[in-house]
Q: What sequence folds into this?
């Protein structure tokens, strides 16, 4: 038994961020699958009233940490090793946090808006345009030579976006017949990044290495493709 309890839902990209952080830093943990939609008193207490995954409990420190980004930050501070998630200097760390926040306001909501919108509708076109603009701005600020956002090593910015980039690749072609552009230097750079991330072991271990993952993911997101599913994922953070 590990001293780290990790509460997750297999389909949740936010929880996957935290799971990737645990795997990347090689932190021993107990994975606990939970249905966050079941707002039982026990789950609400575990999740500190959020009712959402991910949540980690560090029994050594007697602390419970909800929220995917707070978990990544906690893991990097509490488990320092040669595999860092955040940059070492304050300025670089602040820059990383900016680009993670950028994902929440300029990329992720528009992935879900496009997935939920009726194909060919004005809402779908607006979501597509905003998604592409967000990804272009994000990509234009990547390192120019090495594959990951800040260079040769993956970090928090890469981990934070990877589960959502994966859903762009899997869900949008399947349900909306849409794929990202691949013409031009910005899009070539984005696909260089995605090729590196899709081969990133923590992403593979928390997704495609699982039995029937892609098929199960497509099935889970069917309600989203017809306008249902969670509403808050379309909100701009």
A:
């Amino acid at each position: 038994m590990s001293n780290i309890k990790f509460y997750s839902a297999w389909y949740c990209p936010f929880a996957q961020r935290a799971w990737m952080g645990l795997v990347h830093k090689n932190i021993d943990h107990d994975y606990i699958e939970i249905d966050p939609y079941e707002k039982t008193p026990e789950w609400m207490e575990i999740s500190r009233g959020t009712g959402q995954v991910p949540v980690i409990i560090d029994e050594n420190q007697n602390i419970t940490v909800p929220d995917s980004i707070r978990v990544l930050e906690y893991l990097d501070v509490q488990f320092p090793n040669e595999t860092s998630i955040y940059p070492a200097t304050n300025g670089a760390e602040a820059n990383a946090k900016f680009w993670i926040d950028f994902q929440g306001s300029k990329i992720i909501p528009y992935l879900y808006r496009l997935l939920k919108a009726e194909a060919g509708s004005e809402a779908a076109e607006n979501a597509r345009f905003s998604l592409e603009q967000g990804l272009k701005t994000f990509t234009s600020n990547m390192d120019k030579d090495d594959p990951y956002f800040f260079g040769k090593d993956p970090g928090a910015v890469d981990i934070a976006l990877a589960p959502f980039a994966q859903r762009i690749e899997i869900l949008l072609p399947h349900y909306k017949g849409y794929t990202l552009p691949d013409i031009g230097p910005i899009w070539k750079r984005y696909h260089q990044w995605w090729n590196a991330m899709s081969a990133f072991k923590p992403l593979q271990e928390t997704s495609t290495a699982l039995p029937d993952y892609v098929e199960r993911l497509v099935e889970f997101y069917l309600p989203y493709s017809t306008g249902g599913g969670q509403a808050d994922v379309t909100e701009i953070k």
User: Anything to note?
Assistant: The chain has a mean pLDDT of 96. The chain has eleven helices and four strands.
